[in-house]
Design goal:
It is built from 18 helices and no strands. It is an all-alpha fold. Helix 3 packs across helix 9, helix 5 crosses helix 15 and helix 7 crosses helix 8. The protein binds phenylalanine and sodium ion.
Length: 455
Amino acid sequence: MSNPNSLPKFSSRLAFILVTAGAAVGLGNVWSFTYVAGKNGGGGFVLIYLLALALVAAPVFMAELLLGRLGKASPPTSLRSLQKQSGSRLPWAPAVWLGVVSQIVILGYYSVIAGQAMHYIFVSLTGGFSAVSAEDVAALDSSFKAGPLLPLVWSGLFCAATALIVSADVRSGLERAGKLLMPALFIMLIGLVIYAALVGDFAAATNFMFGFSDITLTPRVVMEAVGQAFFTLSVGVGGIMMYGAYMGDNVRLPRAVLWIVAMDLLVAIVAGLAVFSFVFGFDVEPAAGPGLVFLTLPIAFGQLPAGSIVACIFFTLLVFAAITSAISMIAPAVQRMEESGIARYKSAWLVVSIAFFFSFLTAMSLTDWQHVFPLAALGFDGMTWFDLMREFTNNIVLPVGAFAFALMVGWGVGRDRVRAALPMEDTIFFALWFQVVRYLVPVAIAALFVYSLGL
Ligand code: PHE
Ligand code: NA
């Protein structure tokens, strides 16, 4: 069993904020935010996304950190002891096991997307992005996906890097990676957006993202906006709970959460402005889908002076952001095994090996198994293993976990204990947040499920 005093702690408040922001900021902010916003027409989607972020995802994000702070162990162990203390008969720990396991599945596809970005860093370093045409870029994408080998090699390297960082103890692994990579990411991002504004169409990008004039709010747009809000803050799967447990007792949660959510939002907005400046400046299709950053941006890079350097910076940024998120995906499982006496490096390598199995399924889905649809018999025709993994984790596991955590904090732990642990004065802000977690979040998520089943 875990001894709370032996749980490692981040060394400072700043360290906690940077590392947790590192877990939140990832491919979700750059790769998926831009393609989902592009696909769903920009402004209207962004508006719903902002509402979902502020009203549902961010309040649960704070609730999940709080559960970690109260439990001071791996998520399953934390929730088991909190359940006992609360006297509840509901199965709290199983609710998070789903998330702990699902994060390993998420790493499976995440590593392949990050792997393609790693491959493109390599291509940019060998001059592969100078003066490329649209056809060259398409050819580059298909050459990456010519067979499963290349995606597997790169995603394997990505998984190995993740295991190496998590193998180390929390301060020299997780913490050092976050402190180093997050500031680097911000600097690259600022450079990128300035450059994009100079050579691209910044006005069109702003207009696309914030122009609410022609909103087309279909149910699918709403669902994808809410799903993206959950995904971007990594809520509902226990990774954030783990970081809450590593957090020192001197961290004031409300303020820290504001900082982290603001950083995540800022990265998404700035990345969006950069990407769409290129998109509109170089006549690229905004609704290109998941391939947006790979299929279309290099066309813009190819036409820029020093395009290879810009491409190299952009894809490096993507990989940095991805790796600080990837470590949060395996941290809970590794911590749980450490509680059972298994050395960190052993469990880290074991967990990424399991993730790599899902990388294999993703790599196959993008290549030889493009037409293999595992659930075709159930009516999900056209859904590959990759699509299935993404739908299942994004649209089911994250909302279910968020729903469970909101109920635990809203109804299980007790108002006074919650308030003392944040800590927060008994103000209108606390009352508001607490009511949101008690009522609004569970009702909104339940409504979302009903809504999507009706689709
Ligand atoms: N929040 C991460 C991102 O934006 C993705 C993530 C989701 C990480 C779920 C861990 C768990 O890329
Ligand atoms: Na994010």
